[in-house]
Amino acid sequence: MPVGPGCTDCNLTDKAFCGTGSSDGLALTNGQASLRRFKPGETVLAEGRAPAFAGSLCSGFLRRVRVNRDGRRNLIEVMRPGDLLGVVESGPLDFAVEAVTEVDICVFDVADLHRRMHGNRTLRQHILAHLQVRQERQLQAIWLRGALTSRERILAFLLHATEFMPVEPQPDGGVIVTMVLTRRDWADLASTTQETICRLLGELSQDGLVMPDGPHRYRIADIAALAKLAGLDSNTLGPWTDHASRFAAE
């Protein structure tokens, strides 16, 4: 696959659409990748405006947020490396995309992308598959908010963080996860308050289940035990079951 500036060291060659190969017409960068970098807190795509560009998130994390009519901020989704943005949206956005951490985004030419989508069924299928994964994430988040208590939601998101945030498996089967989100974002996702999270983390630390390990780092001693506290069993845990087994085996 031809690569452009910034592609050589990209770690998304097996995830992003630009890495699916040029033989089937899915190489969106066309050998001319352009990286844009945003600092934490910067607005990447503005609410009420059409996307200024389309791209793939190469590194870092983004949040998709919407301000409700009453002025409250609603965090819709945490976007992670490999996610696309501005690809299918054409009109004014009803949400904003902000940088949680420093992020690098591989930018596509929007007009060229839309031409390819029109004439390339395989590309459309890949994009639809990507959107389906994103939708499943949001459905999972809706289920967690509706089915679990405030305490359970906090724990569920901490478990969820082990799927896509930096993790360090420990020899005893535990894991250290780095929470890249702010405490406010965590509270928004769990539909709770920052104070409730602080109290719960204090209780878990006293019980030896979740202990602080430096700024934004949490050591989970027993993922299965934490999942049980979160009200998640083997039928509802989904990917967390695989993570618990993987960490225990390493």
3D structure, described in words:
The longest helix has 27 residues, at 121-147. The strands form three sheets. Strands 1-8-3-6 form a four-stranded antiparallel β-sheet. The protein has a four-stranded antiparallel β-sheet with strand order 2-7-4-5. A four-stranded antiparallel β-sheet has the order 9-10-12-11. α3 (150-164) runs antiparallel to α6. It has helices at residues 110-119, 121-147, 150-164, 183-189, 194-207, 223-229, 239-249; strands spanning 34-38, 43-45, 54-59, 62-67, 73-79, 84-85, 96-99, 103-108, 167-169, 175-178, 210-212, 217-220. It folds into two domains: 17-121, Jelly Rolls; 145-249, Orthogonal Bundle (Arc Repressor Mutant, subunit A). A hairpin with a 4-residue loop joins β11 and β12 (217-220). With 250 residues, it is α+β, with helices and mostly antiparallel strands. It contains seven helices and twelve strands.
Q: Could you name the key traits of this structure?
A:
250 residues; four-stranded antiparallel beta sheet; 12 strands; 2 domains; 7 helices; disordered C terminus; 36% helix; Arc Repressor Mutant, subunit A
